[in-house]
Amino acid sequence: MPGKTLYDKLWEMHEVSRRDDGSSLLYIDRHILHEVTSPQAFEGLRLAGRKPWRVDANLATPDHNVSTTKAERVGGLAAIADEISRTQVRTLGENCADFGILEFPMNDPRQGIVHVVGPEQGATLPGMTVVCGDSHTSTHGAFGALAHGIGTSEVEHVLATQCLVAQKMKNMRVTVDGELAPGVTAKDMVLAIIGRIGTAGGNGHALEFAGSAIRALSMEGRMTVCNMAIEAGARVGMVAVDEATIAYVRGRPFAPQGETFEQAAALWRTLVSDADAVFDRDVLLRAEDIRPQVSWGTSPEMVLPVDAQVPDPAREADPVRRDSIERALKYMGLRANQPITDIRLDRVFIGSCTNARIEDLRAAAAVVRGRRVAATVKQALVVPGSGLVKAQAEREGLDRVFLDAGFEWREPGCSMCLAMNPDRLESGEHCASTSNRNFEGRQGAGGRTHLVSPAMAAAAAIAGHFIDVRELQ
Amino acid sequence: MNPFTTHTGLAVPLDRANVDTDQIIPKQFLKSIKRSGFGPNLFDEWRYLDVGQPGQDCATRPLNPGFVLNQPRYAGASVLLARANFGCGSSREHAPWALAEYGIRAIVAPSFADIFFNNSVKNGLLPIVLADDEVEALFAQCAATEGYALAIDLQAQTVTRPDGAQHHFEVDAFRKHCLLHGLDDIGLTLRHVDAIRAFEAKHHAAQPWVFASP
Ligand code: SF4
């Protein structure tokens, strides 16, 4: 018998029963909810006369629709200008109150993006199954947890039964060995991985990130990498538990304390793939080969190092791929072979569940300090991932660094990552964004998103066009 | 859930790879707290020439004549032909809701994104995976033939073309059973209440911290 992968272990720990048809009931430890994908699930519960199976497994916070401007926020719920957004945020509050679910409402200091809040509170613990009606739930896998996004029917299913009907996926491992060059970050690493394996590369697989370069990342960096596993087609991204994981969790509000913590930690330390575990797919990258990345197209796999040139469809033999390159260039308003550093930015967005943690803000601030946003950039936004991240950044004076440089400093939420609130691109505008999706219209109809790291976004804001951040440092 | 047994319907070819759920139903329409009303905004940015807002009367909006769903020959289509990795991106179930409400009953593609696949089945929308060359053949025939309709039989797991040729597809037994009978997943799971309780007790004993809240 070969050894077990981390995924195998997590799966076995939570399998309630297996049916003849190959599907299993999987027990869910933690369920996180937000306002967009939950209302229909609560409605379904009500219609069927059902109650949540285990109320304290659930944690909710509004993030997608909340305004990020102080003026709108201080007025509370009533001040959300968009009526439909207001209804959605209000409905989450009412549903949580009705069913007794803990919610961090809009102006609670603990409110923020679901995938920032869960780990920050210790609501995400190693060894847990964590689900949320949001595809970036893969983020929580950074803790050696089995975490993935679900649809609204499944939100209702988890609320009612504490289980999911699931089928075990295959095992895939991406190993990044070596040392990242200075100025190259977790975001560049994951973008390079997606560039290599493609947006469908992880379909049907649970993806473990391994290797010395992954081990060397902070927990924030590991969350950034796991966050984008879904952009490589894998619902699940994971990193094995080590001392960094345990140190991060220690002392968090939902984490066990004292003696129980030590017991838990002993179990958590076993959450690693066995040395003789077999993966269905193995991919290897060298950290030294990774340069700062910039996405040029309309899919996260359309990504290149900052010193590269936009591709030329004429050189692509495969007709479907050639067609997608042509379409993407047209949508993005780029020419074949144009240097990436020639792309001028209209807006810059530093935020989202990929890159709005304290370390991300520090990295961006380090580039910005003592400099000014280029006059040609219409707007540069910094949106902290949670109220606690914001408060920490303010204690460190990062807000001043950004404000002095001409950035806006906002209240926590998803903001321009998907532009459900008023923060959005105008048609045709180019944006350097630390978020995770560059799909057509994602940041506003006709908007053109380029995915980058926080340091690269900061550098682009200063230069007004893409530039290798290492030239500024 | 709507059962799916057999279905014969006009096919419409959407010839792009990696169609994401932001494209299937743009975010401004996710603000609804209802499960319905998404059909008119399916593929909104491709389908209309203006920028769609929630609550608009879509009947008066300018249609994009170049978009395949708007071509008269595909009016009333209920089988979507798609390319690889259909439904990638966000987990929004609003995507299958919009497709189903528009009238799509089945999607044929070489591959689907995992979450979208799952969400579709839960809404009686059948995702069918065929090999690349099979899908290619359907695209070619569909473009060449007006009124190109496919007959899908879930029990037999076949897609039958107008020329009589048949393609076999795989579907896992549990999903097939639920689709054929339109079964409510939650009801089925709740038949296992005792097993869930027993598991929970054991899990609680082994890892009590999972059950603690602050
Ligand atoms: S920040 Fe963006 S990707 Fe993350 S949960 Fe919010 S909308 Fe989704």
Mind explaining what this structure looks like?
The complex is a heterodimer of chains A (473) and B (214). Chain A has helices spanning 6-14, 39-48, 70-74, 83-99, 114-121, 152-161, 186-197, 212-215, 219-227, 243-249, 258-268, 319-332, 358-368, 387-395, 398-405, 454-463, 469-472, and strands spanning 15-18, 24-27, 30-33, 58-60, 102-103, 129-132, 146-149, 163-166, 170-177, 205-210, 236-238, 281-286, 293-295, 303-305, 347-350, 379-382, 408-409, 430-433, 448-451. In chain A, strand 13 (293-295) and strand 14 form a beta hairpin. The relative contact order of chain A is 0.13. Chain A has 473 residues and is of the alpha/beta class. Chain A starts with 5 loop residues before the first helix and ends with a helix. Chain A is built from 17 helices and 19 strands. In chain A, helix 2 (39-48) packs across helix 6 (152-161) and helix 13 runs parallel beside helix 16. The model of chain A has no long low-confidence stretch (mean pLDDT 96). Chain B has 214 residues and is of the alpha/beta class. Chain B is 31% helix and 14% strand. Chain B has helices spanning 21-24, 44-47, 94-102, 114-121, 132-144, 173-181, 185-189, 193-206, and strands spanning 6-13, 79-81, 106-109, 126-129, 149-153, 158-160, 166-168. A seven-stranded mixed β-sheet of chain B has the order 4-3-2-1-5-6-7. Chain B is globular, with a radius of gyration of 20 Å. Chain B starts with 5 loop residues before the first strand and ends in an 8-residue tail after the last helix. The relative contact order of chain B is 0.17. At the A-B interface, helix 2, helix 4, helix 6, helix 11 and helix 12 of A face helix 4, helix 6, helix 7 and helix 8 of B. Bound molecules: iron/sulfur cluster. Iron/sulfur cluster is lined by residues 63-64, 113-115, 134, 136, 352-353, 414, 417-418, 435-436 of chain A.
